[in-house]
Amino acid sequence: MLDLIVRRAHLAGKQELQDIACRDGRIVEVAPAIVGEAVREIDACGYLVTPPFVDSHFHMDATLALLGQPRRNESGTLLEGIAIWGDLKPLQTPERIRERALQLLNWSVARGVLAIRTHVDICDPQLTAVEVLLEVREQMRPYVDIQLVAFPQDGYLRDPGAREQMARALDMGVDVVGGIPHFERTMAQGGESVRLLCELAAERGLLIDMHCDESDDPLSRHVETLANETVRLGLQGRVTASHLTSMHGMDNYYVSKLLPLMAEARLNAICNPLVNLMLQGRHDSYPKRRGLMRVKEMLEAGINVSLGHDDVLDPWYPLGSHDMLEVVH
What we know:
By secondary structure, this protein is α/β, with parallel strands linked by helices. The protein folds into 2 domains: 2-43, no CATH class; 53-328, Metal-dependent hydrolases (TIM Barrel), CATH 3.20.20.140. The protein is built from 10 helices and 12 strands. The protein has helices at 78-88, 94-110, 128-139, 162-172, 187-204, 222-232, 252-264, 273-279, 295-300, 324-328, and strands at residues 2-9, 18-23, 26-31, 38-43, 53-58, 113-121, 145-151, 176-179, 207-212, 239-243, 268-271, 304-307. Helix 2 runs parallel beside helix 3 (128-139) and helix 6 runs parallel beside helix 7 (252-264). It is globular, with a radius of gyration of 21 Å.
């Protein structure tokens, strides 16, 4: 006897509703109207059945921060969002961070999001959010796979305590080295932060995921430095560049040179359409840019691209319910 049959499921690429039969925790048959008995049957009623969703880029320490502490991002820009978060950050208690994270994760699981890579701000001498989210990761392990990125929100070089706090966060068990080169004080310091963070990750044998070129400035080109450092240190396939919104304004000749460099380094790229469609182009007159990375061209170049929700009800995005189908749509 089968353990489970899911009846009348809508599967991507199938015109006819399908049944899904499971035994010993594995799918053993997918077909219309499977004949057989099971310990349990579920009628999917024609709804979509998919593998679990993965949110490749999120900020769980800031999620739902606007609930009870409303602050409007008047300009709708990344920089004002960072400033608002700077004001809210000292007000965050371990209890509030945990409560909001667990509330968000209940939404996530209900919407089929069962793997999340979340950045956690390490520019706090107490590393409160790091400690809390490490505990939440373990508490929710039976339900959702959470990966933590040590994220120097205020700049790895710009914030005087970031280097020491980055090392402490990694020692505590954070999984991935993060960065934000476009927020350093100068372009040169941004490039230097990329080099230092890549070397740190290489020394520790860790993955890298940097907020990179989240700007409307087409001259923000830290991703080329990231690609170069990836190759120099032999980190191919272990490095991710998130956002890359400056690519929307780059000239086509430069992009034709950049994409092969990214492909050579086997960089992964993460697009966050919900948030960047709102944040980008705020300084444009008409026509206003959409401000997304060049997803189609990157896929054609053989670059691995995934999607993130990024934010829910926080200083950067005042909407959302952590539904990855909204991101895809």
